Amino acid sequence: MRYLLVLLWCISSFAQAGIYKSYDKNGNVVFTDTPSNDAQEVADKPIVTIPALPKALIDQQKAKSANKNNVALEPSAYKVIIENLKPNDSFRREDKSVTANIQLVPPLWKEHHLQLTLDGKALSQDNFSPQIDLTTAERGQHRLEVKAVNLKGTVLGSEVVDFFVQVPTAIKPKTK
C-alpha cells in the first residue's frame, strides 16, 4: 500500500511538470520547471521530427548522381598538342634521343587512352613524354602520331608531326 502511494505521487508530479517563464530582478528571462508566484506557464510545442530515409533508397540516389556526374564529365573531344617536336624539325643521329612532350585539353579522362605510333608502329600507350631513340632510326623522314581514344577505340583527338633524321656520311674521301 505504501509503495502504491509513492507511485501515485511520482506519476502526479510528472503530470504537473511544465515549463514556466519568469523574469529575475535584472529583467532577464528565466525558464524553469518549478512554478513561482509571478511565473507564466509556457505552452509545450511538439518537436518537429523528420523520419530518415531507408538506407537502400539513399544508396540508390547516390549511385544515380554518381552515374550522372561521370557521364557529364566524359569529354567527347581532345585538343592534342605536341611540344619539343615541331613539324619538319631535323635531328642528327648523334643527338641520341628526342623527347616529345604531349598535352591534352581537357586532361585525359580516366577511361580514355593515349596511343603513340612512330612510322605506323606502336611506340607506347598513355605516355605523355615519349623518348624517340634516334640511334636506331633510319635517315630520312619519320612520323609521330598521337591519338586520344575512348574504350570503344573511337579517336577523340589526334596530332601528327613529321620530322627528319640526318645521318653523317660513312664514306670517307680518298686521300692521295
What's a concise summary of this model?
The protein is α+β, with helices and mostly antiparallel strands. It has helices spanning 2-16, 55-73; strands at 19-23, 29-32, 40-42, 79-83, 89-92, 97-99, 101-105, 113-118, 121-125, 131-133, 140-149, 155-166.
Q: Largest sheet, if any? A: 5 strands, mixed
Counting H and I runs of at least 4 residues, what is the number of helices? 2
From the helix content, strand content and strand pairing, which structural class follows? alpha+beta
**Beta strand %:** 35-45%
Q: Rough shape?
A: rod-shaped
| Name of the CATH first level of one domain | Mainly Beta
CATH superfamily annotation of one domain: Immunoglobulins
Number of strands: 12
User: End-to-end distance, in Å?
Assistant: 141 Å
Low-confidence stretches: none
Q: Indicate the CATH topology of one domain.
A: Immunoglobulin-like
- Radius of gyration equals 40 Å
Helix content: 10-25%
- Supply the CATH architecture of one domain: Sandwich
As laid out across the biggest beta sheet, the strand order is 5-12-11-8-9
Output mean pLDDT: 82
